[in-house]
Design brief:
Number of strands: 22
Bound molecules: flavin-adenine dinucleotide, iron/sulfur cluster
Largest sheet: 8 strands, mixed
Shape: globular
């Protein structure tokens, strides 16, 4: 029997970017908020000291900041006909645990999605004809648009201090920025980072080929910055221990750097850490959330009653909690009915390695989001007529820092160990680089999330089951975009290039991406989506599910800028619409 805690206005599940943003906005509006976080409290000064953070073994290989798979994991399979097996090591995904979530060990690339993305299906049908989208794909519009999103992207940029150069300022294309971005209402809060040699060389070659390179928008800060919550950050030192690590320098934006220091000073905010939410509780009608049930580390159960429940537990756990709580109808790929779990998408990671004889890139200098990119082959920025696929990728060089254990670039044919391998690593360590292409992932009927019928967690609850494989559309796109990357690589004049387009079946062993989206998607109506444009559940109006679980498909960009903008949007709607008239905010 769970112990009942005092009532609160809002219970938030998870204290990553999305949960922290909603907590910050709602406490500022005077609501009492209790945030319940599965992992421990994390703090830069104590947890990410400069003396202990640069430890590749601890953070990359032993995955210090990630969820333990013994606590919770997912099961995986490629096809609905297969039996899924549990992941026991995080090859892919690298989910966060503890305050800050994956926002502690993320890379920090902070793109906005392009305007056409929010109405992708309609846009492609208008441009290429009503039957142009293949039957394989289940693309969808988001139910919102650029004009509604832009103020919330700006709100996130101000919190983060995003560094970059505007490419489109209020409709005017700007020299040196990304000309394909939607019109921004203001310049980036901080100027672009200085660029290491690899990105400089790439940008020069891209410009010579007629493309328009721009500095990758980054949550790594280029100059001192104080955000609207009064939190100050310092400039990045390119230390190279960035992705998979916490930043000791207060230079990489994260919820624990940019939001929690202000949040913990508010009397109406409470955080309960080391507490795992087991389900969202509803009343007898199933149409009203009454709070959440959670367990502490000893297994003792607690009930937190609340007027509003906000779920910000990352794509996988957002969807799992909805399925475990009986909210929404589970998606069935054989009939296409049901919405919870549908349109699960990933990211299609591609790249080209370049081996030079006469260059020294000093690859240990870098950071998760330092680099230059081009967008000519992303999304629908090029004509797809006759290509047989839609989508594309963001092409960029982002030297994250060449860690001593993992970074051993050697050309194909090099022995995997021994004297020849050692010689090759010495020869190539300083003079190799790579160009990445982070590309779109489009939804299909058979890629979805559901509860696993076999495997359970330590509380006996079913694990989340991922059914996913790369669609034909995305594999063709990967080949095409990688060939464009290879053209730029050749123009840079290396001794040898190696093309690595995504190919074959999806598997979880190599790290590909942590960008998993969909499963509890937003849309225009409850027939094909789970939440409305305010991230409000169609079925349970006092429940909001925030995060990339709301994306109906994934463009060729990193997701967090958009997940965060949606969290601001949901909080804004709660404050300005819902509280005045509690109930569904979109009626169909
Ligand atoms: C290595 C890596 C690099 C990345 N790089 C980039 C990048 O460059 N750009 C980009 O845009 N994105 C990047 N991402 C993705 C980015 O980190 C996520 O999009 C972002 O952190 C998601 O925020 P969130 O609030 O939705 O989820 P999270 O950050 O995962 O936070 C969710 C929180 O909920 C907690 N939680 C989960 N379940 C429960 C439960 N049942 N009860 C209580 N608490 C729970 C978790 O412990 C966690 O703290 C990267 C991710 C990783 C792992
Ligand atoms: S590279 Fe910069 S932002 Fe990243 S951890 Fe180092 S100092 Fe921090």
């Amino acid at each position: 029997m769970a112990t009942k805690l005092p009532h609160t206005d809002v219970a938030i599940i998870g204290l990553g970017w999305t949960g922290a943003i909603v907590a910050s906005e709602l406490t500022a509006a005077g609501l009492d908020v209790v945030a319940i976080e599965r992992g421990p409290w994390r703090d830069t000064a104590r947890d990410f000291s400069i003396a202990s953070v640069p430890d590749e073994l601890r953070y990359v290989h032993r995955q210090e900041l990630m969820l333990r798979t013994a606590q919770n994991t997912v099961t995986v399979r490629n096809d609905p006909s297969e039996t899924a097996l549990p992941m026991r090591n995080w090859g892919s995904f690298h989910p966060g645990n503890g305050t800050g979530g994956a926002g502690n060990h993320w890379a920090g690339i902070t793109f906005r999605f392009q305007p056409q993305e929010f109405r992708l299906k309609s846009y492609l049908q208008e441009r290429y004809g009503p039957t142009a989208i293949s039957d394989e794909l289940t693309l969808q519009d988001w139910g919102t648009d650029w004009n509604e999103m832009e103020p919330f992207y700006t709100a996130f940029d101000r919190i983060v201090g995003t560094s970059g150069k505007a490419g489109n300022l209020r409709g005017q294309i700007q020299e040196g920025g990304n000309p394909f971005e939607g019109p921004r209402s203001e310049e980036y809060p901080t100027k672009p980072l200085r660029q290491p040699y690899g990105p400089v060389l790439f940008a020069k070659a891209a410009a010579e080929m007629g493309y328009r390179p721009f500095p990758v928008p980054s949550s790594l800060i280029s100059e001192p910055y104080t955000n609207p919550l009064g939190v100050t950050m310092g400039p990045c030192t390119f230390c190279g221990f960035c992705t998979n690590y916490g930043c000791a320098n207060y230079s990489k934006a994260s919820p624990i750097v940019n939001i929690l220091p202000a949040l913990v000073r508010r009397q109406n905010f409470t955080a309960r850490t080391n507490s795992e939410v087991l389900k969202v509780l509803t009343d007898s009608t199933g149409k009203k959330a009454t709070g959440v049930l959670f367990a502490d580390t000893s297994g003792e159960e607690w009930e937190q009653p609340a007027d509003l429940v906000v779920v910000g537990a990352f794509t996988f756990e957002n969807v799992r909690l909805m399925l475990l709580s009986g909210i929404g109808k589970p998606y069935d790929p054989s009939t296409g009915e049901g919405t919870t779990g549908r349109n699960y998408c990933y990211q299609t990671a591609n790249g080209v390695q370049l081996f030079f004889d006469d260059k020294n890139f000093n690859p240990f200098i870098g950071g998760g989001a330092v680099g230059m990119g081009i967008d000519e082959f992303n999304n629908d920025n090029f004509d797809h007529s006759g290509l047989g696929f839609f989508g594309g990728g963001s092409i960029r060089v982002t030297p994250i820092g060449a860690a001593p254990i993992s970074y051993r670039p050697v050309p194909p044919g090099t022995p995997a160990w021994g004297k020849e391998w050692k010689k090759a690593t010495v020869k190539n360590y300083l003079s190799a680089m790579s160009i990445g292409c982070e590309a779109s992932s489009y939804a299909t009927r058979n890629n979805y999330l559901s509860l696993d019928p076999t495997y359970t967690d330590r509380f006996g609850r079913p694990l989340l089951r991922i059914t996913f494989d790369f669609p034909e559309n995305d594999l063709k796109m990967a080949q095409y975009c990688t060939s464009k990357v290879a053209d730029i690589a050749r123009h840079m004049g290396p001794r040898q290039i190696v093309e690595n387009p995504m190919k074959g079946h999806w598997n979880t062993v190599p790290y590909q991406s942590s960008h998993v989206v969909g499963g509890f998607i937003m849309g225009e109506n409850p027939a094909n989506s789970c939440v409305n444009k305010y991230l409000q559940s169609w079925d349970v109006p006092n429940l909001f599910v925030v995060g990339a679980s709301a994306f109906p498909q994934n463009p060729g960009y990193n997701p967090t800028g958009t997940a965060a903008a949606l969290a601001f949007k949901a909080a804004d709607a709660i404050k300005n619409i819902y509280l005045k008239d509690p109930g569904p905010m979109v009626r169909t």
